Amino acid sequence: MMALAFDVVLAALLILAALAAVAGRGLFRAVIFFIVYGVLVALAWARLGAVDVALAEAAIGAGLTGVLLLAAHGRLRREGLEADPGAGGQGFAAIGGAGVALALGWAWFALPEPATATRAALDSALPDAGVGNPVTAVLLNFRSFDTLLESIVLLAALVALWMLARDGAWGERLGLPQHARPGGVLASFGRVLPPLGLLFGAFLVWSGADDNGGAFQGGTVLAASLLLAMMAGLYLPPRIGERLWQSALVLGPVVFIACGLVGALVWGGFLVLPPAYAKGVILAIETGLTISIAATLALLVIGPPEQAHNSGGAA
Amino acid sequence: MNEWLHFVGIVLLISLAGALWRVWRGPSAADRMMAAQLIGTSGVGLMLVVAALGNWAVLLAALTLAVLAGLSVVGFVKARSSDGAGDPEEAAPPPLGSLRE
Questions:
Q1: pTM for the structure as a whole
Q2: B101 in contact with A at a CB cutoff of 8 Å?
Q3: Domain, as residue range, for B94
Q4: CA-wise closest residue to A139 among A39, A13, A282
Q5: Other CB atoms closer than 10 Å to residue A311's CB: what's the count?
Q6: How many domains does chain B have?
Q7: Predicted ipTM?
Q8: pLDDT tens across A36-81, in order?
Q9: Which of A51, A76, A195, B30 has a CA between 20 and 30 Å from the CA of residue B84?
Q10: DSSP character at residue A236
């Protein structure tokens, strides 16, 4: 009885937050409701027992996307473009949102019910996967081709973002020149949190092999730590051509493809993993992917290079 | 025990709803942002309740939320500074320095 009441209240708040984000007036309010919505969705996933998804949602939805949207809103405000989209724009967004919701609902009902056959196949194959977490097993062993392509998509997104840079700013450091009062709250926060985030992010990757966690969740936490150090002005963002950063960005896909080629040459197929080596190879791929995901996400949020670095810092 | 935990969860959700109302009403941007932080904190509490209901792995999600919820405040403060990359403390006269002199 109480359990049902809990779920009903949670679902009601979730719908309210979603409606408020779409239907309310004011961009800033919509942004905040979107962040809040991320927290509630993470809760809902946790409640459903999907801890890996809850982790990803908490890290991406409540963490990184919030920073991204707040920065975008701040930019609009500074440039005097902070206007409501108007009834037409909102109607368009509402129709688009409703369309996505309907398509997802249809996909849900079109799923074979119940999915026990898939689950049984997964359970029987899991001992050969090398890892105990079924999500990691699917992502990095049974369906690793998809994951490889996804890791390249992330890189392509960063390249697309850099294309937005103006010619004159190309050689500059990425993003705006960040600064903070030395010894102030922000600078101190930027010193205290990143070490904890580093520890926790690395733990999430390690834990992802046999329990919950994984490269994506861990990489996101690492990206957030890096971002915080950059935003506190303690760590300068790189320029586009810096070798170390370029290596970090491509490390994951390179290790992934190399492992796939070894599989093709030695084990009889691209991305084939024999059970005896599976755990080692998966951990190597996950480590490479984590570094690339952390670097890519942090640089995506920091943004393309901006001219402002040249013209005298704190304007 | 489970009934009791669910009850605690509902109470937390109701307090979270209060913060949701504050996000809706504002009126200032800081009001909404701080309410969002309150919701983040309630979210950590709710994750702990869900963890105690039998899925202790949810503690990881609670930790993630606890580590990252503060990041959006940093984003907010940055976005509100004059050049989008500053720190409101820079604008204020340094109180400690003036005391020392």
A1: 0.86
A2: no
A3: 2-100
A4: A282
A5: 9
A6: 1
A7: 0.88
A8: 999 999 999 999 988 889 998 988 887 888 888 998 888 888 888 7
A9: A195
A10: P
